[in-house]
C-alpha cells in the first residue's frame, strides 16, 4: 500500500507540471506531498506491525492497533474536510481557469497550456465553448470561432466556428 501511495503522489506531482498555470496556488501540491508522507508513515507502521507479530509482543501489537485507530480518525477527518470545502476549491479553480483563458492569444505559454488541457480533457472552455465569447482573443480575431484545440478529434477539417457546434 505504501508503494502504491508513493506512486500516486509522485504521479500527481509530475502531472502538476502540465497544469500549473491553472493551479496558481502553490498549495495545490499539498495533497500529493501529504500522500507521500502518509506512504512513508504506512511503511513504518507496517514494519512495526510485522515486527510485533513476529516477536508476539503484546505491547507492540497494542501500539500497532493505536496507530491504526489514529490513522482511521485522520482519514475520516480528511473526508469530512474535503466534503465541506469542495465548493470553495471548485470556485477557486474556475476563477483561475477563467483568468488563464483571458490571457489566451495563441502564442504565449498560457495558450499552450490551454490548448493542451482542452485536447487532453476533450473539452472547450471552462464550462463550455460559449466561455470563449467573452475572451479578448475571441473579440480580437473577429472570425466568430474558438481555438482549434476545441475541435473534436474525430472531425476532419474543423474550423472552430461557433455556427458548427457539433464539431466542438
UniProtKB/TrEMBL annotation:
GO terms for cellular component: plasma membrane. It comes from the Eukaryota. InterPro entries: Tetraspanin/Peripherin, Tetraspanin_EC2_sf. It is a multi-pass membrane protein. Its main location: membrane. It is found in: Membrane. The keyword Transmembrane applies. Pfam families: Tetraspanin. Gene3D superfamilies: Tetraspanin. The chain crosses the membrane at residues 28-54, 61-85. Keywords: Membrane, Transmembrane, Transmembrane helix. This is TSN36 protein. It comes from Phaetusa simplex (large-billed tern). The gene is Tspan36.
Amino acid at each position: 500500500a505504501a508503494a502504491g501511495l508513493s506512486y500516486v503522489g509522485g504521479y500527481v506531482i509530475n502531472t502538476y507540471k502540465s497544469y500549473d498555470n491553472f493551479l496558481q496556488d502553490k498549495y495545490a501540491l499539498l495533497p500529493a506531498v501529504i500522500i507521500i508522507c502518509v506512504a512513508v508513515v504506512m511503511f513504518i507502521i507496517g514494519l512495526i506491525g510485522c515486527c510485533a507479530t513476529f516477536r508476539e509482543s503484546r505491547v507492540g501489537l497494542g501500539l500497532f492497533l493505536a496507530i491504526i485507530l489514529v490513522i482511521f480518525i485522520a482519514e475520516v477527518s480528511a473526508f469530512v474536510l474535503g466534503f465541506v470545502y469542495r465548493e470553495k476549491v471548485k470556485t477557486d479553480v474556475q476563477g483561475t481557469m477563467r483568468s488563464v483563458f483571458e490571457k489566451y492569444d495563441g502564442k504565449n505559454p498560457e495558450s499552450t497550456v490551454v490548448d493542451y488541457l482542452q485536447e487532453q480533457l476533450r473539452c472547450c472552455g471552462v464550462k463550455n465553448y460559449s466561455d470563449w465569447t467573452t475572451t479578448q482573443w475571441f473579440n480580437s480575431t473577429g472570425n466568430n470561432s474558438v481555438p482549434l484545440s476545441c475541435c473534436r478529434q474525430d472531425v476532419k477539417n474543423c474550423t472552430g466556428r461557433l455556427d458548427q457546434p457539433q464539431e466542438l
